[in-house]
Design brief:
79% helix, two-stranded antiparallel ribbon, 9 helices, elongated, 6% strand, mainly alpha
């Protein structure tokens, strides 16, 4: 009887260990899929932003967009020798810019609240479309900041994001309690940003940027741990896992993008 108990205990332990290994391997594959989606989304955004910028500026005054000033057609100049093309004028100076700015918001709501009714392929397509539209609106940073400072801030953001996400993945500390404070901080940043649209205060903008960096730094770690726990305790498979990975990639994508734009406001060097 003792041999039977001993053998049963050994088999149970082996089964538990095998389950743990399977869960760990599945978790790694799931998180890798999320990071792959996120990185591809950021790549699409980057190429879209750079592409629309290249289509928006020209050194040829004859090819520039023209506006009527003092009864004469005048080329729209950004600075000496650099002009906005008709595409650039439409994207960054005409009312069309509001369509480009607001369209991604509609897609975020569609993904967040309608993804359960979508096939994974459709959810992926909407995510890529969202990333491209964000890139179109983000192309304006090349008009405002020097290209060197944009690249520098991007690598600072990538290093910071990687460290924070790794912390969220590996820490044994439960970050769930931190999430409520971070969400409150996020709403505070959004409200302060809207207020500053009317106040146009550089001091308030600086405060919003600093607080925003702290909020999205915390959200990066919190979202990573949340996604890890969702896989471990959610019993997901098939299409459900695919949709969850896309939403997870969207969360981390937004954390990275907001961290980048806020750091750019703090550390970016503006064009003369």
């Amino acid at each position: 009887m003792s041999d039977l108990n001993r053998n049963y205990g050994s088999a149970s332990y082996a089964g538990t260990a095998a389950d743990a290994v399977a869960i760990d391997q599945g978790l790694r594959a799931y998180m890798l899929q999320i990071y792959n989606y996120m990185v591809l989304g950021l790549a699409i955004t980057g190429f879209a932003a750079l592409g629309i910028y290249m289509l928006s500026v020209t050194g040829d005054a004859a090819a520039a967009a023209k506006v009527l000033r003092n009864g004469a057609q005048t080329a729209v100049a950004l600075k000496s020798g650099v002009y906005l093309t008709p595409i650039g004028y439409a994207m960054f100076a005409s009312p069309l810019k509001w369509v480009v700015i607001l369209a991604p918001l509609g897609l975020v709501f569609a993904l967040s609240f309608g993804i359960e009714r979508m096939r994974p392929a459709m959810a992926q397509m909407l995510f890529w479309l969202y990333a491209a539209l964000v890139g179109l609106s983000l192309g304006s940073i090349f008009l405002v900041y020097t290209h060197t400072s944009i690249v520098r801030v991007f690598f600072i953001t990538a290093a910071s994001f990687g460290a924070l996400s790794l912390f969220g993945y590996t820490t044994r500390r439960n970050l769930a309690g931190l999430g409520a404070f971070l969400i409150m901080g996020l709403f505070g940043v959004i409200i302060a940003s809207l207020v500053n649209v009317f106040l146009i205060s550089s001091a308030l903008q600086w405060i919003v940027s600093v607080v925003g960096v702290l909020v999205f730094a915390g959200l990066t770690a919190w979202d990573t741990q949340r996604l890890k726990n969702e896989y471990i305790y959610g019993a997901m498979d098939g299409d459900t896992m695919q949709r969850s990975a896309i939403l997870g990639a969207l969360s981390l994508y937004l954390d990275f993008l907001n961290l980048f734009t806020l750091l750019l406001q703090l550390l970016g060097q503006r064009e003369n």
